[in-house]
UniProtKB/TrEMBL annotation:
It is found in: Secreted; Bacterial flagellum. Required for morphogenesis and for the elongation of the flagellar filament by facilitating polymerization of the flagellin monomers at the tip of growing filament. Forms a capping structure, which prevents flagellin subunits (transported through the central channel of the flagellum) from leaking out without polymerization at the distal end. Homopentamer. Residues 210-429 form the Flagellar hook-associated protein 2 C-terminal domain. Keywords: Bacterial flagellum, Cell projection, Cilium, Coiled coil, Flagellum, Secreted. One of its GO terms (biological process) is bacterial-type flagellum-dependent cell motility. This is Flagellar hook-associated protein 2. Residues 11-104 form the Flagellar hook-associated protein 2 N-terminal domain. Belongs to the FliD family. GO terms for cellular component: bacterial-type flagellum filament cap; bacterial-type flagellum hook; extracellular region. The keyword Ribosomal protein does not apply.
Amino acid sequence: MASISSLGIGSGLDLNGLLDQLKEAEEEKLVPIIEQQETQKAKISAYGQLQSALSAFQDSADALNDSALYESLSTNVGGEAITATADAEAQPGSYNVSVETLATRGTLASDGVATADEAITTDPQKLTLNFAGSPSQEVDIAADSSLEDIRDAINANEDAGVNATIVNDGTDFRLALSSRETGAAASIESFSFDGTAPFSADTDNTLQSGTDAALNVNGIAITSSTNQVEGAIQGVTLNLQEEGESTVKIEQDTLAVREAVTSFVDAYNDLKGTMGELTSFDAETGAAGELLGDSAIRTVESRMRSVLSGGVEGEFSMLSDIGISLKTDGTLEIDSDELDNAIANNQDALSAFFVGSSDETGMAGQVNTMVEQLLSANGTVTGAITGAENSIESLGERYTRMEQSIDQTISRYRTQFGQLDGIIAQMNQTSSYLNQQFDALDAQLGRD
């Protein structure tokens, strides 16, 4: 049988086209597998959305599961004289604060010298800095130092107690010193050299003594070396801004608690909305959510409903006791007046409701435990994701096997078509030969 190098050459038939059609028909067997893979991928993405919404709800529950939230205090300041912050040791109360003077830094300048960058010392020596109520400090001055070098030596010394700059008074250059700390005790008073002094302190004209802050809190006189006053009011730091009158009110931070409760409700409603989208169905278009009818999401909904409709021990035992109700559509709704009343008048009971006696006994703790179980390695959501991933892997293997089977089938068709092409070609050759012989015979008979 003759060898056919290209299908159809021998027979004149479009065998390659026919083979392509057969291949396309065979590859239709792959379409359902691809569609199932896409379905599983869509489910994994949907489970990811569910995980994110559950984690956000868990975070909101964690915030409510902290007893410190219900003990936090806010600081309200009236007037411009001060600002204030409170820590955990502060106690509720109201205070009148009168700032009489602010704490200031002492300053002192030297006599003038002609230049700032030429040497004014010969030998190395020590510069002694004297303060009103603090120990004196010594600064090493190198030989052949200029005014700029002396300035730099002072600023490089962490214990010098002053900052140094150079001021030009229009005629000469002066070394200007400013105490690094405010208050009378830290005030610079004078300085001296232990060798030949390149200049002296101008105490008559430039000395300005540092002062302590003076204030009055509810009639009690207080002095402070700094403008940041701690301890005048227990657990409160007063930052003095200017002379004048201010009021400070330390009270329970009801806003922080309300924001935490509102975030809890919002996070649950967002979770409920996410689950609604993932299980939706449009009767007109036939479009369905990726998790419509999914057992995992039904389990999540059931567990959520069970925890939120359950109770805890205490004065407040149900969400409805603090103004949070479960609506017919499954979302939560806040009665602002009832919640504000609970926050303003009974934060201890509110803390007991959400926190409980341990991390898991209050409402927030129960929610946190439930979400942890759902998202754990062996939990419902994680298990569903693992199942979808395994399905994709199995479908991938099935796709590969089907693809190999199709390749084998097409290869078999190609071989059979090649054989057919060869047979038809041979038959065409035989037919042509016989026609030639008949024509020759006819011609011979005609001559006879």
